[in-house]
Amino acid sequence: MMGLVSNLFRMGDGSWISVQTDKPAYYAGETITGRVIAHINSAVACDQAAVKVKLKEVVAWHDEVSRTVSEGYVLALLPDMTAAGRQPCNAPTPPPPPHPPYTVWDHHNRFLKRNLLKEVVVVSRLNHVLPPGEWQYPFAYKIPEHLPGVVKFRREESYSDPAPQYRSMRKETLGSLVFSLKAVVETRGMFSRELKSRQEMVVNPWFDWKAATPQAVMKKGEVYWCCCIPQGQVTMDCKFDKGAYAGGETAQIAATINNESKCKVANMVVKLMRFVQLRDGAGHSRSFTDTVASARYEGVAAGASAARYLPLPLAAGGHHFLPTVKAEHINITYRIDVECSIDMAFDIEAQLPVTIYEPPPTVFGLAALFGAGAVPTIAAVPMPASALATSPMGAPTSPGGGFLPPVPGAGVDMSGGMGGAPMGAPMGAPMGGMGGAPMVATNPMAMGGGMGGGMGGMPPPMGGMPPPMGGAGGMPGY
Asked: Which residues contact 360 (CB under 8 A, 6 or more apart)?
């Protein structure tokens, strides 16, 4: 939102730009399709319209390490060297008493910031004065398959150092992987500034959908009362409805417990455990283990068998469920534990590693910038195969991620040519120019007469004569 407000002030006339994707969330390996929408209120000289793709990784935390120091001497107990306490010259000087051991705290700031991905997709080369109107530039970008996903992690803790300056302070631990698309219309002139808008995207890592199928775990353990007296065995057979969940869902677990021991299973406990590890690339790391959801159910009597339904709501306690991430410097994993809690003995646990994925946002694109009740009406533009941008591997890609052969006569690549759309087309109709992506002009001011054809649909200079009819690549004007 701040990017949009900044752009409005920069343009000074209410012009704005936005990225509108066709879906709110994607998986690594998919192709992002959408439109760059530019609302221009006054003519502006432009070079090109582009989408800047970035994946930024940030890791930061504060380390405090204590150590015990026993060196040095107590200054207050040194020998008295004043005139009153001066010893004879030949008297031996007694050694000063050693200082008692004390604790010293060392503080270190760990930090890492880098771009895992940074690319520019040129959606149209304009090279002319863009008239007032609403301009749309379709684009497509294939997400690399190795992307680890996105996450934002923040944790606050109290300092362990008892020094007064740390008593009222909190130390922060940060970790983030942010995937963003920035729409940019580059303008000319010494005092002109780019019209741009940035949107963060939900991108989940490549996911093995076999993990979404039902899972089963069996655990058999010996019960030792007071850690040493054997009491018999407990067998637990757990069935999970699936192995991947989104925050807000409920994990459905059915367990069959066969208690052949002499001890009562006091409770059945189900927990979702989260394991976070951060690295700074210099050999330092920080780890956390949290119980983010738990539930407790009825146990099983000694020498009995029972079936228990153990649902685990994944929204308990108001926790934000960070998605599973396996990156070089940020690692977040989850595990569901089903425990047979036994008094005076070790618990019998069945464990299943699970995947937590980021659900798609409910508000994105224009609705995120303007608010759900103030979204401007934008005409849709179809996405032809010729308008797809070049993938990181250098070949045009389809919305499904496959490679497309060149299509003769199907249009021109959106990354080359003069860019502008012919101005003589009917209002709201798709238009294409030499190297420009199909656009829709929804403002009558953008469709003045005499602007047909020449040089691939390039509009005339403001206030000047129309261009020659039937120029290179142009159609005769109407």
From this structure: 23, 24, 25, 202
What is 209-357's CATH number? Answer: 2.60.40.640
Q: Distance (Å, rounded) from C-alpha 214 to C-alpha 81?
A: 83
Residue 389: per-residue pLDDT: 37
- Give me the phi and psi of 373, to 5 degrees please: -95, 0
H helix or E strand, kind and range, residue 370: helix 366-370
pLDDT digits (tens, 9 = 90+) for 121-147: 999 888 888 888 888 999 999 999 999
Q: What are the extents of the domains in the chain?
A: 2-60+111-205+384-416, 209-357
The three-state secondary structure class of 214 is: coil
- 328 in helix, strand or coil? coil
What's the CA gap between 44 and 374, in Å, rounded? 26
What is the reported pLDDT for 438?
38
The overall longest dimension of the chain from CA atoms, in Å, is 119
Is 171 in contact with 60 (CB distance < 8 Å)? no
The domains spanning 2-60+111-205+384-416 and 209-357 adopt the same CATH topology: yes
Rounded Cα distance, 94 and 82, in Å: 15
CATH fold group of domain 2-60+111-205+384-416: Immunoglobulin-like (2.60.40)
* Residue-by-residue DSSP string for 73-139: B-GGGS---SSTTPPPTTSPPPPPPBPPPEEEEEEEEEEEEEEEEEEEEEEEEEEEEEPSEEEEEEE
Among 344, 351, 342, 337, which Cα is nearest to 234's? 342
Report the sign of the C-alpha dihedral through residues 120, 124, 126, 132, in that order. negative
Distance CA 194, CA 168 (A): 44
Q: Which residue in the block uniquely carries the two structure tokens 């308008």? A: 387
The CA distance from 291 to 331, in Å, is 16
* Cβ burial, residue 52 (10 Å; 0-12/13-18/19+): middle
List Cα–Cα distances, 113 to 54, 178, 279, in angstroms.
Answer: 13, 12, 11
User: pTM value?
Assistant: 0.67
CA angle 210, 211, 212 (to 5 degrees): 90
User: What is the rounded average pLDDT of the residues 408-433?
Assistant: 34
**Per-residue pLDDT averaged across 87-98, rounded?**
61
pLDDT tens per residue, range 347-390: 889 999 999 887 776 655 555 555 555 445 544 444 333 333 33
Burial class (CB in 10 A: 0-12, 13-18, 19+), 456: buried
Phi-psi region of 470 (alpha: psi -120 to 50; beta: other; left: phi over 0): left
Alpha carbons 51 and 93: distance in angstroms, whole number: 80
The answer to whether 124 and 49 have CB atoms below 8 angstroms apart is yes
Mean per-residue pLDDT, 249-256: 93
